[in-house]
Amino acid sequence: MESEGSTTGLSTAALVAIACNTFVAILLLLLCLIIYQACRVPSSPERLPVLAPSEAETQQINEHKYLLTS
């Protein structure tokens, strides 16, 4: 199964296994980096969430409610 010209002494199957394991390790590191970025606490807490209404919209809603109740 080993080739005659191999200078490292490792079989082809061993080299393929090393390459696959290295690829999987890189993917795991990338996944950990993505999870770390996603779980970080926001550095600017004054920023509103995307789905939160702006101050102008909130004021319009409150004025509309006030007009309906009076």
From TrEMBL:
<keyword id="KW-0812">Transmembrane</keyword>
<protein>
    <recommendedName>
        <fullName>Adropin</fullName>
    </recommendedName>
</protein>
<feature type="transmembrane region" description="Helical">
    <location>
        <begin position="12"/>
        <end position="36"/>
    </location>
</feature>
<keyword id="KW-0472">Membrane</keyword>
<keyword id="KW-1133">Transmembrane helix</keyword>
